[in-house]
Predict the 3D structure of the following.
Amino acid sequence: MKFGHFDDSRREYVIETPKTPFPWINYLGSEDFFGLISNTAGGYNFYKDARMRRITRFRYNNIPVDDGGRYYYIKDGETVWNPGYKPVKTDLDSYECRHGMGYTTFTSSKNGLTAQLLAFVPLGYKGEINRLTLENNSTEEKTVSVFSLREWCLWDASDDMLNFQRNFSTGQVEVENGVVYHKTEYRERRNHYAFYSVNRPVDGFDTQLEDFLGMYNGFDRPDVVFTGESKNTIADGWQPCASHKNVITLKPGEKQSLIYILGYCELPEAEKWEALHVINKKPAKAMIEQFATCEQVDAAMDALRKNWDRLLSLYNVEIKDEKTARMVNIWNPYQCMVTFNMSRSASYFESGVGRGLGFRDSSQDLLGFVHQIPERAKERILDIAATQFRDGGCYHQYQPLTKKGNNDIGGGFNDDPLWLIAGTAAYIKETGDFSILDEATPYDCNPNDTGSLLEHLSASFNHVVDNKGPHGLPLIGRADWNDCMNLNCHSTTPGESFQTFGTADGRVAESVLIAGMFVAIGPELVELYTRKGMNDKAAAAQKEIDAMRETILTHGYDGEWFLRAYDAFGAKIGSKECDEGKIFIESQGYCVMAGIGVEDGRALKALNSVRDILECEHGIVLQQPAYQTYHSNLGECTSYPPGYKENAGIFCHNNPWIMIAETVIGRGGRAFDLYKKIAPAYREEISDLHRNEPYVYSQMIAGKDASRMGEAKNSWLTGTAAWNFVAISQAILGMKPGYDGLTVDPCIPASWDEYTVTRMFRGAKYVIHITNPKGVEKGIASITVDGTAISGNVIPVYPEGTTHAVEVVMG
Ligand code: GLC
Ligand code: GLC
């Protein structure tokens, strides 16, 4: 069952009912100022950091789940309604929500009045614009009152929800000409405030939530709205909010727009005040002037659209399968951008207070984003690398506002260092910019202790070399990619964090996944050394890689598949000898991606085992059989009920590892079947089961051991976005950026006869038409570029601004 449809020509998902199975959200903003917006206009805003600079409030564990947001109450006679249906939930005569690229619109109607609400963050602007357009479609003149409502968060989202004894006394606002300024803590150490404005004189306002709502009411029954009278309150502690009242009269057929701005301003210390207790409103006024008229709003929307036109033109496929096209051309790259911006911080599943940016997460997110805005990828790489220690280890997470590593979680996740090599290599291949390797980059965020980025990458590599266990495999530390396989934790007390309890320094527990990553990613460093003329280092690193490959074949293969790990007692994990957790997905994916066992059939066997044991109709589960009881030697993965999350859920992130692995052994049909199983557009028809947004990937789909098999959780912020983009754009459709050019190497279903990829690469445009007359899955018979045959399958780098027609015949 569906709850909407794709409108590909406008790049929108059109939601046809407010009652989706879970809030279906979108993101506004892609630079510094962000908003989350649901299909009932719920959500919140923040500046740069969802925890430390939260602008509007969001209530966690709320009932109903999505309460609070950008609310506009329309009082038309005795009827009160909202364009987004919530919070009053008056039945609407029509409702439509369109989530697009960086904007959302609602078009709803009630009793002959149509409301259109447009929400977006203009490029380069530190604020969210909401334009509410009312149109009288009745035959009578109408006079309605519009009440807006936003609720302020007292900046630190974590403190905001816990420290009431203080917060109830600190909240402060100013109101001038109907603009509400939120200035809590501005009089002491903060140099920033927020404001909420509307572009016409107000007929009333409120800033004290308790008075606006009435002490015992919710958002669905505000006193002020239902009595029709603003109270003109000035908040004094308690819960500050911002509401305007505007009375609008519309002749039949007449249309009028109100433009609301939620903005953020920072001031230099010396310019903070106009007078005692009066904040300097100049920057806010300048921002308000920027969007005083509909023409200004339209122009900013146009610029936003053009920006996405450009971003989405960088990789484009024309293919018969429209679902693949809409994923590749629209929604997957869009999600990659959002995930790159947010890492795992703020969604309807991530509170924004728990985590900043993850080291491994951001490094992997880069893989799907780097072609969009390489300069931002570069900045991110250097920020991440600055949280690395001299020994190659690194902070697992850091806060975007301070760019400092998080001490709460610390380091010791031994896969982290290798992802930095993967991310950097992807950046250089995309851009050809080797100079990044020479950037002086701090260790442990200490500007006085730096090394070149290349030295950081060496440290990453050596961290594996220097930390091997009894079998010569890499020590796992606190965990590898699977955050919930905590082999050195041994926790038996409720509440202890699996990620930080126990030691990071266990010298026995080993990871076959990290070993596979080392063999897959290590060669990138060898290549970089070679290109830098550091041949001794290259040779030494290659030796380590070759040795690890042997070690995996000797101690990391279990007859039919790759082992997953050895625990702290030296016992096998992911082996046929185990009762539960006999086979895991991660090591099958990475070891085959590394090419291990490809010649002798062990890779093939491993992938067939994945197919036979781990795959189901909704994707590939993480492991089998699921753990039925808690095992303290394995940690958090055994804490989840069977079928969920890291205990045999379909953890979508590493499904594409198997897709890519399938292309390594040449099975394009298999790779694409796996792609279709988890790609949201293919799951749209089962939205009632899937429940999350059908336009973006979710982190997890409940696996075959779960009673709710097929149900998704944790949509939006997941490495799934980047990896699926890599799988489809590079491994399957076959456009692989390389150091010296674009390698064309498709691995597709035999039934595909042709498709065209238009890809920008280093400023030149490659229009690559692929035909498959013999119906093969892999292999190239010939390539011509601009009519001339080339040998091999690497299309060279061309001057910026040129366009090249590439004809590829498979066979
Ligand atoms: C979460 C984490 C990620 C981890 C994954 C598997 O998505 O953000 O870092 O790799 O879970 O445990
Ligand atoms: C939980 C999640 C896992 C995540 C970890 C770190 O354990 O299951 O996916 O990576 O938290 O936040």
User: Anything to note?
Assistant: The first helix runs from residue 157 to 162. The mean pLDDT is 97. The longest strand covers residues 142-155. DSSP finds 20 helices and 44 strands in the chain.
